[in-house]
Structure formats: C-alpha cells, structure tokens
Automatic annotation (TrEMBL):
Pathway(s) it belongs to: Purine metabolism; purine nucleoside salvage
Organism: Kosmotoga olearia (strain ATCC BAA-1733 / DSM 21960 / TBF 19.5.1)
Glycosyltransferase recorded as keyword: yes
Annotated a purine D-ribonucleoside binding sites: E190, N232
Record-given protein name: Purine nucleoside phosphorylase
Limits of the Nucleoside phosphorylase domain: 21-263
Residues that, per the record, bind phosphate: S27, H58, R78, F79, H80, A110, S209
Keywords on record: Glycosyltransferase, Transferase
UniProt record similarity statement: Belongs to the PNP/MTAP phosphorylase family.
Length: 268
C-alpha cells in the first residue's frame, strides 16, 4: 500500500496554498494553469515514488494557486494506463488529494464524439461511464483506509453540483451537453466497427482516461464532476484520420468557454 499521506504532506509543505479543489487537466487543457494567481508549480519528477507523464499536451506537474478566488491544485498532465503505468499508479493522485483534505474534484479530458449531435468544440458533462478497458484500479486487496471493498457506482458524479454549473453556464451563454463516456485503453484510436459497438452500448464519447480516476474518487469519497471537450468526431463518423495534434489543437480552440466552465464549477 502506498504512503499517500507522505506525498500529500510533501506537496502541502512546498507552498502556503491549502487547496479546497483538485483539477485534472486533459490533453491540451493544461493552459488553464496560466490563469492561476500566485501559482507554484511542482514537477512530478520532484516527488519521490510519483509516476511521470509521457504524453504530448501533458506537462507533468502540479500547479497550486488561486483560480476564481478558490485555492486549487491542478494536475497539468495526468497518467494513462497505455503509458505503461500500473493501474494503481494511474489513480495515485486521487488518494493524495484525499490525504490533502480535498473533497471536491473537477476532472477534464479530450474525447472523441460518438453521439452524432455533438461536434468538435462542444463541452459535455459526463453523467455516466462505461468501462470497456476492463481494468479496475481497485483490484487487489482493498485499501481499508480509504473505502469499502464494493463501492457504489450508481451515481458517478455529483448531480447537484452539475445542475448548478449548468444553470450558471447557461445564464452566461454557455450551453453544456451531457453524455456517457466510454473508457478504452488505447493508445491506438478506435476502429469504425468499435465505435459502432460503443454507440450501440450507449456511449456518447470515447477516451483513454478519466474512468479509473472516477472509480478511485468514488472509492475514497471525493465529490466530483467531469467535463469532456469533444476534440474530434470518433473513428468512422467522418471520413477523416484521427491525429493527436488535432486533439490538442481543438482543446486549445475552446479555451475561453472551457476555462469559464471550470471557473463556474469553482464558484457555484
Ligand atoms: O483523456 P485525455 O488525457 O484528455 O487525453 C485524450 O487524448 C489522447 C488521445 O488523443 C488520449 O490520452 C485520450 O485519453
Ligand atoms: O477519438 C478519440 N478516441 C479516444 N481518445 C480520444 N481522445 C480524444 N479523442 C479521442
């Protein structure tokens, strides 16, 4: 069992910021930390026993500071199973957040749109998940310090929080969509036949992250909401090749609306 307490203590000792919220930033969404006030960056490589980021668009550092008046810690770079990390390492930050006393988490990602009413640039609130990677970060002895053996997953996100975000966003001219996110391991993008199968299963968008983080957060009792930035239509929907550069570029194109939504989630 990992010493999450030690990692949390180490992070808290590095700055005067006592974060109330944690933020996980998806591919191309790391720019958000540029808007933080009084920010301090701590590279993952400075933390003994901490995994390292390897994906383009994921810097590999924590940034602590103030955003919309709230103390936050952001992961500018998350861990994906396809990078070769152990599944338990993918969710290490979640338990570190728990040990830091954080009770609210905002997860973001870049995702491929399966639902044909979506288009690149849409911001979609995740309201349910499908685990088609068939990996689970809770496999192995249950870490009784944090949660029960069989966590309930009937509500993966905090719907009261989301409804407040939706209302405020709408009043500021931003219409959020809702959808079910399917997790696949990657790193190859999906085939058109796979996307048809996921569509048939009820998925609205697809990605290679987020679900392990949600499972771990549910396990240790951190309230969360999660947003996908639809960066491309999923394989086979358009006659177009998928490339990661486009994912990062689209994520950056919706900078303004996406950072407003995250700001609203901190305010409401
Ligand atoms: O989920 P995030 O980290 O936003 O990244 C998404 O973008 C990458 C593929 O382009 C994959 O890692 C996928 O999961
Ligand atoms: O189309 C996609 N598939 C999987 N992951 C993704 N992340 C962004 N777009 C995609």
């Amino acid at each position: 069992m990992k010493d999450y307490k030690k990692l949390a203590k180490h992070l808290l000792e590095r700055t005067n910021v006592k974060p109330e919220f944690a933020l996980i930033l998806g591919s191309g969404l790391g720019y958000l930390t540029k808007y933080f006030e009084d920010s301090h960056a701590i590279s993952y490589s400075e933390l003994e026993g901490f995994p390292q980021s390897t994906v383009e668009g994921h810097a590999g550092r924590f940034v602590l500071g103030k955003f919309h008046g709230k103390n936050v810690i952001a992961m500018d770079g998350r861990f994906h199973y396809y990078e070769g990390h152990e599944i338990k390492d993918v969710v290490t930050p979640i338990y570190v957040f728990k040990e830091m006393g954080i009770s609210r988490l905002i997860i973001t990602n870049a995702a491929g749109g399966i639902n044909r009413s979506f288009e690149p640039g849409d911001i979609v609130a995740i309201t349910d998940i499908i685990n088609f990677a068939f990996r689970n970060p809770l496999i192995g002895p249950n870490d009784e310090r944090y949660g029960v053996r069989f966590p309930d997953m009937s509500k993966t996100i905090d719907f009261d929080w989301l409804e407040k975000v939706e209302k405020t966003a709408e009043s500021r001219g931003i219409k959020l969509k809702r959808g079910t996110y399917v997790w696949v391991t990657g790193p190859s993008y999906e085939t058109p036949a796979e996307i048809k199968a996921y569509e048939f299963s009820g998925a609205d968008m697809v990605g290679m992250s987020t679900v392990p983080e949600i499972i771990a957060a549910r396990h240790c009792g951190i309230n969360l909401i999660a947003f996908s930035c639809i960066t491309n239509m999923a394989s086979g929907i358009l006659d177009k090749k998928l490339v990661h550069e486009e994912v990062v570029q689209t994520a950056q194109r919706v900078k303004s609306a996406f950072s407003k939504v995250v700001g609203i989630a901190l305010e409401v």
